[in-house]
Every structure is written in structure tokens, then in C-alpha cells.
User: Which sequence fits this backbone?
């Protein structure tokens, strides 16, 4: 009785929710700040974003609080101990994955096209910056103009996105004529082709430096300041991520977004409504790819190194798992899915492995870190069977009929 | 050019060997697709599991010091592997596909990818647990090789050598294909299978047990895929948990090439793809003047897949199907 | 002058001639019914006109413009809209969103302006939503505007499909068995709706229907197909008494009310 009364009170009062949320944020950020490397505290702090999603606060307030959390509270709270860079490393990687998952969500979630080679576009972005910002370009073009300085990083975010979009279109033109399930196989094949090509383009002309990869890639630079630490890259990633989220939100309920969903639901009916199939699908490929491409540029600048081994099929599947787990077509869902899987990959599995090896001296074979495939497999099967719409189901946009009536009508 | 020609006999032999494997694995894809319109992504992994189960059985025979004539061992292991992988196939269908028959098309595909990953990791786990390494090298049942004197037929040809294992592989895969063809076209259960593939609802009305037929399809497809996995392990000696993936993709290509759902088409598709791939691996470098080498052979196979899907999606031997509006 | 003209339209599937040398001239503003036994080629004829299939022979013109070798979306752009025999709504989308998809060709916001959410985009979207709501009112589904299409009852789904087709601002509206599965009361409402939209939206309507009461009541012209061929055409009275029509129906044992 007590509990239910309480929960009713919570449900009805945004003020109550807000104060509880702030309390929660305060407690979890304080623990992150004062505790020495506590994964639990960090997860709780991230969890406050999820809580925020479920409150009934106004959209504007939600935006303000999440911005505060991401830009001020999280960077500050993690700066307390010695593990700031570890936390920020996780946050940066998670941000990169979220952007990619949101890109894939356009293709799989909105347009209903199963793309199993999505990481190829990430690779395109990474190599676009990697080649020109490393000694590779100097060798390739025999010019002292290269490698480009770190200040070029900023325009290259756009260029990387555009290159990926261009490749999305180039791949899409033949691939999107293929029907239904075959698309999955063909994109999978293309993903592998791109990797093999990057792996072997050190001859006859050395473009990608083959399996050795590209090293000494310049770090971003602005007004003489060089970005080198994870805690600095964090702000770049957050900025791009915010742009991506706003873009996806705006696309979702636009003419193009509705066309994607219409194609997903029924291609023939969509065509009968005047929607051109191939063109609309190409837009999905191009826009989805561009998010990945932008983050590819960040990835290569941060690691100062790229090689083909970062772009294997398992990466494509990882991004797919994020989308499926979170909820195909659901923007908050995909963000949640990407966060869960990244944190699982980067922190929880490592922690559990360390814990097990230290306390039980288990063999390396059993190490949870190696069981990524098993975990992904189980997640995919369970979600497919029990929760095909993911953790946060995509909700169609509701309108207020009161605002749609021009004048007093005589309906009915 | 003369190099290409003189190496042709060996290319053909190697190509047909690889092609025979593709063909049998392609059968599994094509049968399931024919009946459920589902790309059974896990089929490549069933093939891989077969390779490990068979090799595991063979190695444990050695451990227990059981000695039998090689051909008895071979048949025994093939049958056991087929039985186990067949059951594995039935289990996968029950667990991961049957609950999703009414779901939107994307969902069973996702489940299939999931199963594929689960199998890869389980096999890796067992292999590492038992041998300490996920790459396993088995023992060979049949040593020795035969030389076919092509040069005495036409002077420009070089001779081709065939391992005894290869002869067995080709022989057994041909037997499998003939038996399957007879089964599907001449027996009651084969007819039921074709009926379900044509129209599930009508078949059910004709008092065909659709679920049973689907289970049977999975059993047969998986059993022959798994048995072929063991033959593959014998042929190429080294196996790892990830061999099924690319091979499965290529076998699927073969199935599409032959017209998906078409059993004879899959056999021809497999053989054609195998020969083309080995030919490409041997000669891409010569043909392109060294620009593109044999490392592009997978790219070559995928390119075929994509070209077929774009220009002739019904395959070489299939009929085009129009969606009902 | 006729708005839509078919000359010698023929389509074969394998050995089967689904539509055989069909001629027709549909007058602007008319309601025409296409009837015939199951498998007579009625829906195939719709699919040929709307571009889902390509005819093997013959010509199809809308107000003098040929519709041959055009994709379905281009044909929709010329002013031909349709509903489907087996209802093809966008199931996960709301009723209002379904209508908005129908308005696709009449919305012009560019991608860049959408991403920047310029005032022009917002204005266009607002107007579109208002217009969509009006269309829902027309078919009596206004209060269902936020319902997902899959959750609507059958009769309402059929009406939503009509509203969605109207959203494309068509010249010609094709209805494929609009009354299928409806009870007599629903059919009566539908009959009135069809006549009303023809008048309000200045439409030419062509429908396939098995409900002879509905057909006889609203059509000015009836075309009868059997085995892919046009065996008769004329006004309801002429069709009612045409011996070939009676044979086509009774000969197959398919007795229907009204005949």
C-alpha cells in the first residue's frame, strides 16, 4: 500500500521526480568523485540519464539537465581520482558507438534494411583522415604539403562524413536493387570486401599501407592546443553526438523519415504513394554512413593509428546488437543499447574477468572477455524471441488534435 | 597464358574439390530457404561444428587406442557426425526459428545471426578447453596421393595430383547429392517437402505435418552439412571455429547462383563457384599483371554473388517469382 | 473525352494470359466498376495501370500521357492513387502518419532545411498535419488520428486506406474490393463515402467489387472480365441482362446476389 501510494505520487508530480533525480545525480556523482575507480558508481551516474528519460519533465528541461550532466557533471565527477582517463576512455568509445548505432538505426530501424557491413563506413572515415594526416599521404603524393596538421581535423570531420556518405551511395546503387533478405548477405559481403581491399591496398600503389596500418596520425589541434587525452576527446565526441542526435530527431518525423518507415512497412504501398524506393533507401544509406564516417575520423585521430583489424565483421555485429537490443527505430532505445553494450564490452567484462582471475584463478579460456560472441548471440536470440521491439519500444509521434482543427468543424 | 593452360588440370581438380564442399553446404541453405524463405545464417556454423565434432571423435578414438580399418572409422565418424549435427539443426529450428514464423522478416534473420555467433563461441570454448588452442589440427585417415597424367593426354597440360582424401571427399559428396536428389524427388517424405515448400497452408490441409517436414528438412540439411564439415577437416587438416562463416557465405552464393530453393541448382552452383574461385586464386595475378593477387579471391566470390543478385536474382536455374499484390 | 484509355492491354504470366487485349475508355468524373469471377484478371489490370506490372502489349494513357514504362511512384505522381485488395497500410504508423505519407509528393522541404528546421519546414509540416486531419475527418476517423493503423478495426482500415489515397491528390482513384469483409451497414456507409469523395474531390473512380448491390448502385459504367478478356461493358441495366455475363457467373456456379 505504502509503496503504491508513493509511486502514484511520483508519477503525478514532476517536481517530486525532479528533486529525486537531482538527489540521485548528486549521490552518484559524489561517489564517482570520491571512490577510487568504482564501475558501479559510474554506471549509476550514467543511469541518471535513463531515469531522466522516464521522468515526465518537459522536453526542454530534459535537454538542459542532460547537457549539464554530459558537459559539466560527468567530466567533473570523474576528475576526482586517478582513474579519470579510464572513465573518459569508456565515455569516448561509448559516444563513438552511440553515433554509429544511431546511424545504423536509420538504415535498419527506420528504413528496415538489414546492413551487416556497416563498420565499412566507419573505416572509410578513419582512413580518410588517417591517410591525409599521416606520413602516408606525403609518400603517396610526393608532396611536403602532407601530412596535414591537426588543425585540419575539424574540416575532416565533415569530409570524413561526406566520404562515407559517398561510399554509402556507391555501394547502395547496386546493392539496394537486391531484394529483402539478400540485402543482409550482400552488405555483409561488401563489408568484408572493404576490409580485404584496405588490407591489400599497399600494392601496386601503397595507399593504405596494408595490414601494417597507418601510424603517426596527427592529433586534433586548435589555436595551438592539441587534443591528446581521452578527457579532451570527450568534448569533441559529445559535440558531434549532440549534432547527430538532433539530426536524427529532426529526420525521424520529417517527410524523409516517414518515407523510410513507409518503405519498411510496405514497399509496394509506399511506391503507390509516390515514394521512389531506391532514392529513399540511398538517403538512408548515405545519412547513416555519414555519422559513422564522422566518428571514424575521431577514432583515427584519437588512436593516432588505424589498421584493417579494427573493422571486422564482429564490429558490424556489435553495432547491430546495440540497435536491436535498444529497440529498432527508437532513438532513446538505441542510445541505451549502445551504452549498455559498450560499457559491457569495455568495463564490465574486463572487471568481471579481473575479479575471476584474481579470486578463482580460472583459465584464460573461460574468461568472460573472450565470450563476446556468445553474449551477443544470446542477446540477439533472446531479443528476437521475447522482445523484438527492444528495451525501449519506438513510439509513433502523437499529435494534439485540438491544434489541427482549422475552424469549428461540423465533423459528425 | 601458357601457364594458365598448363596449370588448368590442377585448378580443375582443386576447384571441383572446393566446389563439392560448397555444393553440399549450399544444399542446406537452399532446402531451408525453399521451405521457410529464411536465410539460415547458422548453417555455415553447423558445417563448422561438423568439422569439430568429426575431428573430436577421430582424436578421441586415438586417445582410447581404438584401432579400426580406416574406411570403417570414416563411415562411422561420418554417420555419427551427421546424426549429431542433424539433431543440432533440429534443435536450432525449434529454439530460434519456430517461435518466429509469424514475426516480421527481419526478426528470424537476427535470431539466425545470433545462433551463428553462439555456435562459434561454444565451439571455440570446447576446443580451447580440450586442446588449449582454438585452432585444431586433426589426424588424417588416408595418407598418400594419386597423380593423374593429364600431360599424356594433351602435351601443354601439367599433371595433377590428388590426395586420397580428396578422392574420398569428391566420392562421398557425389553420393550424398545423388541420394538427396532421389530422396526429394522419389520418396513420400521428399514429396511432402516439396509440397510444403510450394504452399504451407495447402500442404497442411492435405494432412501433411508441416512442423515435422520442416524438422526433417533441417535434419537433412544439417546432417549433410556437418558430415561435409568432417570431410573438409580431413582435406585441409586445420580447422578453427570461424571457418564456417566465410565458407557459409560462399556456399550461400552457390545456392543463389543455382537459383535459391532449387536443389540441383545448388549442386551446380557450388561446383561452378568452386572452380571459378580456384581459377581466380591461381590466375588473378597473371591476368591482371600483378595488380590484383590471390588475396582477392574472396572479393571475387562476393562480386559474383552481388552480380547474380542484381542481374539474375532467380539464379541460373531458378524461376522468377512475383510478389502477390 | 475520356481521361484514362486502355488499348489492347495484355499481360502473360508464363503460359497464362492474365489480361488479354483489354480496351477501355474511362470518362472524367465517372464511377466505373470492374467485375468478373475470381481470377478473371481484375487486380492484374489494376497492377498494370498502376505500374506494378508492365504490360506485354498495348497502351495505357492518362489524359494523353502514356503510363507505360513508368515506375509506380511516377504513376502516382501523375495522379493515380489506389487501395489494395489485402489492405496495405503502414501498420506501425499512426492513422495521421499514414495520411502524411500519402502527401509525400506534395511536400517540398529539402533535407538541409529539415535538418536546420527552418520556419518554412515547420509551417509546411503544420499545414500538412492540418490537411491530413481534415482527410481523416472526411472518412470519419478524426478521433483515431493517434491510433496505430494495425490497431484499427477492419472497416476503419479500409476507410483509412481510401483517405491515404486521397492524400496524394489523385485524378483517378482505384479501389480494389473496398467493401470486402464489411457488413451491410458498413458497406452502406462506404457507398455513400465513395460517392461523396467523387463529388468533393472531383475524382474519377474505378473499383473492383464483388458486392453487386454496391456495384449496381454506384457505377455508371461496368466492365466485365472473364479469363482476362473483356466480355461486356455498359451501364448497370445493360450488364444485368447481358447473357454472356450471366453465363460467366452462373456457368461457374458462382451465383451472386443481385444477379
Assistant:
Amino acid at each position: 500500500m505504502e509503496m503504491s501510494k508513493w509511486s502514484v505520487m511520483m508519477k503525478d508530480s514532476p517536481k517530486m521526480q525532479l528533486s529525486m533525480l537531482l538527489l540521485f545525480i548528486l549521490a552518484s556523482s559524489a561517489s564517482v568523485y570520491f571512490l577510487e575507480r568504482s564501475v558501479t558508481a559510474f554506471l549509476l551516474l550514467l543511469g541518471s540519464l535513463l531515469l531522466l528519460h522516464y521522468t515526465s519533465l518537459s522536453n526542454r528541461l530534459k535537454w538542459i539537465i542532460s547537457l549539464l550532466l554530459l558537459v559539466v557533471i560527468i567530466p567533473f565527477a570523474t576528475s576526482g581520482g586517478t582513474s579519470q582517463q579510464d572513465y573518459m576512455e569508456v565515455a569516448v568509445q561509448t559516444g563513438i558507438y552511440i553515433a554509429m548505432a544511431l546511424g545504423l538505426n536509420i538504415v535498419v530501424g527506420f528504413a528496415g534494411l538489414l546492413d551487416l557491413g556497416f563498420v565499412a563506413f566507419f573505416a572509410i572515415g578513419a582512413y580518410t583522415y588517417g591517410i591525409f594526416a599521416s606520413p602516408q599521404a606525403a609518400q603517396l603524393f610526393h608532396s611536403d604539403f602532407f601530412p596535414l596538421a591537426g588543425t585540419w581535423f575539424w574540416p575532416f570531420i565533415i569530409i570524413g562524413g561526406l566520404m562515407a556518405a559517398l561510399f554509402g551511395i556507391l555501394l547502395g546503387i547496386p546493392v539496394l536493387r537486391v531484394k529483402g533478405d539478400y540485402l543482409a548477405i550482400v552488405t555483409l559481403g561488401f563489408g568484408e570486401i572493404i576490409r580485404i581491399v584496405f588490407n591489400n591496398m599497399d600494392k601496386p600503389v601503397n595507399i593504405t599501407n596494408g595490414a601494417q596500418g597507418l601510424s603517426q596520425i596527427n592529433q586534433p589541434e586548435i589555436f595551438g592546443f592539441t587534443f591528446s587525452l581521452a578527457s579532451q576527446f570527450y568534448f569533441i565526441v559529445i559535440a558531434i553526438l549532440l549534432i547527430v542526435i538532433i539530426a536524427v530527431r529532426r529526420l525521424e518525423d520529417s517527410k524523409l523519415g516517414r518515407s523510410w518507415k513507409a518503405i519498411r512497412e510496405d514497399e509496394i504501398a509506399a511506391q503507390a504513394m509516390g515514394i521512389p524506393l531506391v532514392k529513399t533507401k540511398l538517403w538512408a544509406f548515405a545519412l547513416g554512413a555519414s555519422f559513422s564516417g564522422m566518428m571514424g575520423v575521431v577514432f583515427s585521430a584519437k588512436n593516432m593509428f588505424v589498421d584493417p583489424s579494427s573493422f571486422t565483421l564482429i564490429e558490424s555485429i556489435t553495432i547491430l546488437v546495440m540497435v536491436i537490443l535498444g529497440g529498432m527505430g527508437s532513438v532513446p532505445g538505441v542510445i541505451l543499447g549502445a551504452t549498455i553494450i559498450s560499457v559491457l564490452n569495455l568495463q564490465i567484462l574486463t572487471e568481471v574477468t579481473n575479479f575471476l582471475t584474481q579470486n578463482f584463478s580460472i583459465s584464460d579460456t573461460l574468461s568472460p572477455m573472450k565470450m563476446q560472441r556468445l553474449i551477443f548471440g544470446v542477446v540477439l536470440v533472446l531479443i528476437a524471441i521475447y522482445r523484438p521491439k527492444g528495451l525501449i519500444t519506438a513510439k509513433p509521434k502523437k499529435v494534439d488534435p485540438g491544434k489541427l482543427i482549422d475552424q469549428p468543424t461540423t465533423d459528425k | 597464358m601458357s601457364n594458365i593452360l598448363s596449370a588448368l588440370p590442377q585448378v580443375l581438380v582443386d576447384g571441383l574439390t572446393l566446389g563439392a564442399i560448397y555444393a553440399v553446404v549450399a544444399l542446406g541453405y537452399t532446402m531451408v530457404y525453399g521451405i521457410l524463405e529464411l536465410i539460415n545464417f547458422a548453417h555455415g556454423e553447423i558445417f563448422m561444428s561438423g568439422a569439430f565434432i568429426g575431428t573430436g571423435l577421430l582424436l578421441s578414438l586415438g586417445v582410447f587406442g581404438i584401432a579400426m580399418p580406416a574406411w570403417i572409422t570414416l563411415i562411422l565418424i561420418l554417420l555419427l557426425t551427421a546424426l549429431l549435427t542433424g539433431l543440432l539443426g533440429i534443435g536450432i529450428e525449434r529454439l530460434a526459428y519456430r517461435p518466429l514464423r509469424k514475426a516480421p522478416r527481419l526478426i528470424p534473420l537476427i535470431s539466425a545471426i545470433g545462433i551463428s555467433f553462439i555456435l562459434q563461441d561454444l565451439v571455440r570454448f570446447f576446443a580451447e578447453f580440450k586442446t588449449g588452442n582454438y585452432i585444431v589440427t586433426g589426424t588424417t585417415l588416408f595418407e598418400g596421393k594419386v597423380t593423374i597424367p593429364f600431360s599424356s593426354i594433351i602435351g601443354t597440360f601439367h599433371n595433377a595430383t590428388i590426395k586420397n582424401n580428396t578422392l574420398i571427399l569428391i566420392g562421398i559428396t557425389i553420393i550424398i547429392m545423388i541420394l538427396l536428389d532421389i530422396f526429394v524427388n522419389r520418396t513420400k517424405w521428399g514429396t511432402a517437402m516439396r509440397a510444403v515448400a510450394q504452399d504451407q497452408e495447402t500442404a497442411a490441409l492435405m494432412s501433411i505435418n508441416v512442423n515435422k517436414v520442416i524438422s526433417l528438412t533441417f535434419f537433412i540439411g544439417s546432417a549433410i552439412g556437418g558430415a561435409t564439415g568432417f570431410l573438409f577437416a580431413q582435406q585441409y587438416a586445420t580447422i578453427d571455429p570461424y571457418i564456417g562463416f566465410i565458407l557459409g557465405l560462399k556456399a550461400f552464393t552457390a545456392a543463389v547462383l543455382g537459383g535459391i530453393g532449387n536443389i540441383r541448382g545448388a549442386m551446380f552452383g557450388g561446383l561452378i563457384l568452386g572452380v571459378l574461385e580456384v581459377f581466380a586464386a591461381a590466375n588473378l595475378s597473371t591476368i591482371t599483371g600483378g595488380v590484383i593477387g590471390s588475396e582477392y579471391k574472396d572479393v571475387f566470390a562476393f562480386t559474383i554473388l552481388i552480380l547474380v543478385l542484381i542481374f539474375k536474382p532467380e539464379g541460373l536455374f531458378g524461376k522468377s517469382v512475383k510478389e502477390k499484390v | 473525352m475520356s481521361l484514362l484509355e486502355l488499348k489492347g492491354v495484355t499481360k502473360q504470366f508464363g503460359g497464362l494470359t492474365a489480361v488479354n487485349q483489354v480496351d477501355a475508355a474511362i470518362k472524367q468524373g465517372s464511377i466505373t466498376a470492374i467485375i468478373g469471377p475470381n481470377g478473371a484478371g481484375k487486380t492484374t489490370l489494376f497492377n498494370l495501370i498502376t505500374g506494378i506490372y508492365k504490360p506485354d502489349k498495348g497502351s495505357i494513357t492518362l489524359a494523353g500521357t502514356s503510363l507505360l514504362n513508368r515506375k509506380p511512384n511516377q504513376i502516382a505522381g501523375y495522379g493515380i492513387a489506389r487501395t489494395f485488395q489485402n489492405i496495405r497500410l503502414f501498420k506501425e504508423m499512426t492513422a495521421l502518419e499514414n495520411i502524411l505519407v500519402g502527401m509525400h509528393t506534395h511536400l517540398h522541404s529539402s533535407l538541409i532545411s529539415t535538418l536546420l528546421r527552418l520556419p518554412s519546414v515547420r509551417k509546411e509540416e503544420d499545414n500538412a498535419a492540418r490537411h491530413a486531419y481534415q482527410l481523416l475527418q472526411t472518412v470519419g476517423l478524426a478521433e483515431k488520428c493517434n491510433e496505430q493503423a494495425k490497431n484499427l478495426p477492419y472497416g476503419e482500415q479500409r476507410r483509412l486506406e481510401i483517405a491515404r489515397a486521397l492524400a496524394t491528390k489523385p485524378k483517378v482513384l482505384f479501389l480494389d474490393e473496398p467493401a470486402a469483409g464489411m457488413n451491410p451497414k458498413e458497406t452502406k456507409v462506404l457507398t455513400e463515402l465513395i460517392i461523396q469523395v467523387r463529388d468533393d474531390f472531383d475524382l474519377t473512380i474505378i473499383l473492383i467489387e464483388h458486392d453487386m448491390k454496391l456495384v449496381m448502385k454506384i457505377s455508371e459504367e461496368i466492365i466485365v472480365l472473364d479469363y482476362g478478356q473483356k466480355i461486356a461493358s455498359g451501364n448497370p441495366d445493360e450488364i444485368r441482362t447481358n447473357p454472356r455475363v450471366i453465363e460467366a457467373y452462373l456457368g461457374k456456379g458462382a451465383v451472386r446476389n443481385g444477379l
About this structure: The beta strands of chain A are 221-222, 225-226. The CA atoms of residues 349 and 371 of chain A lie 9 Å apart. Chain A is about 70% helix and 0% strand. Residues 408-412 of chain A have pLDDT under 50 and may be disordered.
